[in-house]
């Protein structure tokens, strides 16, 4: 079920967003674009999650997520030609992902990195860079009034953009519902959804999000047909 049919609205492919006064664009693919510096911001790729499950004898996930996730990232890079790509941690599902990644996928990653600054923010799944992976590996990145990190800080964090929590939103309208990834923000900080093909999601009504926002946040719901913004009060918990 689509967002537009459920909400009876027309959604657009992008939406403007100001975080701590800095302009961004929310992309329906689940990333942020910062036009002033030409920066693409993406969270939680979880590359090689499928092969990690297979290595542990949990073979229900076919090990093709890395190729699919990199293909989606490539489409954005071809569209925007960013000067900077910033990935907000958990880009790799575990510390041995670099040993399992297919040569063709590693070649694709290196091709995407060519000619641009590539910044890996360390996450809880990938605190250190996997072997053979290029780019700058940082605990966080500060750009003017914006701070990019993996895990949101408890309490006030002016200008923070983070991942880690994999936000998703659920909407009910006239007895019909849809659950989709979203960007959650109050204009002061933002939490980005997971970009990875096999990454799951946590409902934004979960109490884990409550300490992050002093004001009522809004969710930019992401669908194949575009982006639509709703206040948190319009969203439903998973059990509802």
List the uncertain runs: none
CATH architecture, by name, is: 4-Layer Sandwich
Q: Strand share of the residues?
A: 25-35%
Count of distinct structural domains: 1
> Under CATH, the topology is which?
Purple Acid Phosphatase, chain A, domain 2
Can you put this structure into words, describing what you see?
This protein has 240 residues and is of the alpha/beta class. The protein has one domain (3-234): 4-Layer Sandwich (Purple Acid Phosphatase, chain A, domain 2), CATH 3.60.21. The chain is built from five helices and 16 strands. It has helices spanning 3-7, 49-55, 65-80, 97-100, 103-113, and strands spanning 14-19, 22-27, 31-34, 39-42, 84-87, 117-121, 136-138, 141-143, 146-148, 160-162, 167-173, 176-185, 190-191, 202-203, 218-223, 226-231. Strands 8, 9, 10, 11, 12, 13, 14, 15 and 16 form a nine-stranded mixed β-sheet that branches. The chain has a seven-stranded mixed β-sheet with strand order 1-2-3-4-5-6-7, covered by helices on one side. α3 packs parallel to α5. The longest helix has 16 residues, at 65-80.
Looking at this protein, list some descriptive labels:
seven-stranded mixed beta sheet; single chain; alpha/beta; nine-stranded mixed beta sheet; Purple Acid Phosphatase, chain A, domain 2; 31% strand; 5 helices; 240 residues
Summarize the structure.
This protein is of the alpha/beta class and 240 residues long. 18% of the residues lie in helices and 31% in strands.
